[in-house]
Specification:
The structure is a single chain. This protein is of the alpha+beta class. It has one domain. The protein contains four helices and five strands; from the N terminus they run αββαβααββ. Strands 2-3-1-4-5 form a five-stranded mixed beta sheet.
Length: 122
């Protein structure tokens, strides 16, 4: 588990990176929704390589700290990152993907979902 200072530093760097490419993430989310790929787009933020989803932002190319992959709830179920018996709990916490980014954040010492409004005033 990250201590409080590590959590704050991690979230700060993630927020700074997201400011740079939030609009690109939103466009991919709209493609997933409008293309009827899924009603549940999920994005994966990571520093070390992960094998979930398809990479849309490469931290190395942009000289940033975080890479982003696009995925879906269906992939998370198939890979058993979300267990079938927890699906209802996940859906109850789900926020509208038109207004909020669902971000699965992978850290050295764990991972978890956070929802971030695409616009700060939402």
């Amino acid at each position: 588990m990250l201590n409080l200072k590590e959590q704050e530093e991690t979230l700060k760097s993630l927020r700074q990176n997201l400011k740079i490419y939030m609009e690109s993430i939103r466009e991919v989310s709209e493609e997933i929704l409008n293309g009827k790929v899924s009603k549940y787009p999920v994005f994966v933020a990571y520093r070390e390589e992960v094998n979930i989803g398809k990479q849309i932002i490469d931290k190395e190319e942009l000289a940033l700290e975080w890479s982003i992959n696009a995925s879906t709830l269906e992939e998370f179920l198939r890979r058993e990152i979300i267990m079938q018996d927890k699906l209802d709990v996940f859906k109850k916490s789900w926020k509208d993907p038109v207004t909020h980014l669902c971000l699965f954040t992978v850290l050295e010492k764990g991972a978890g979902f956070i929802y971030i409004p695409y616009n700060a005033d939402e």
